[in-house]
Amino acid sequence: MNTYTSYTAYFEQIAIDFFGHTESEKHFYRKGLEEFLNGLSTDVRYPALLLGKYDFTMEEVGADNWMKNRNIAFIICDHVADQEDYSLGDNAADITEDLFNKIFNRIVADITEPRHDFLQWAKLGNIRATPVQNYADGNHGFFVTIDILSHHNTATV
C-alpha cells in the first residue's frame, strides 16, 4: 500500500543510493522550503535531499475508479562557500541537476517495473524543478514538485 511512510522510506533510499546518506553521514532531511530559506542547521552534509510533505487530490476516472494525485516536493541542494564565485554556483547547479536526473530516472524505472510500494500502479503527472538559493547559508539547488497518480482502492471501508 502506498502510504506516507512508504513515501519517506522511498526517498530515504534514494538519498542512500545517490547522496551517500548513512546514519552517521546525513544527507537526507525531512525539512521543507521554509527551513531551507530560513537557514538549515549545521549538521547538514552536502549535497542534501530535503523531503517535503505531499498533498493530494482524488479524481474519479470513471465507473467508481479513483486516482489519488499526490503532489510531492523535495529540494536538492549543495553548498557554495563563496557567494561571489559564480563558477561555484554554476557547479552546484550542475551537481544538483545531475542528482535530479538520477532521481527522475529512478522514479521512471520504479514505475515501469514497480519495486516499491509508494509507486505501485502509478504514473507521473506534472514535473517542475525551480532553482532556489539561500545566500545566508550558501545553499543552491532545485525545488522539485512531481505529481504522482496512483489507483485508489474503494473496495475497502
What does this protein look like?
- This protein is of the alpha+beta class.
- It has a single domain, classed as 2-Layer Sandwich (Alpha-Beta Plaits), CATH 3.30.70.
- The chain has helices at residues 4-19, 33-38, 86-112; strands spanning 28-29, 48-51, 55-60, 66-79, 122-134, 139-152.
- Strands 1, 2, 3, 4, 5 and 6 form a six-stranded mixed sheet that branches.
- The radius of gyration is 17 Å and the shape is elongated.
- The two termini are 15 Å apart.
Distance between the termini: 15 Å
Shape: elongated
The radius of gyration computed from the alpha-carbon positions, rounded to a whole number of angstroms, is: 17 Å
Domain module tally: 1
Return the average pLDDT rounded to an integer: 87
The oligomeric status of these chains comes to: single chain
Could you give the order of the helices and strands? HEHEEEHEE
> What percentage of amino acids are in beta strands?
25-35%
- CATH architecture designation: 2-Layer Sandwich
CATH fold-type name? Alpha-Beta Plaits
- What is the helix content? 25-40%
Number of helices: 3
Unreliable sequence segments: none
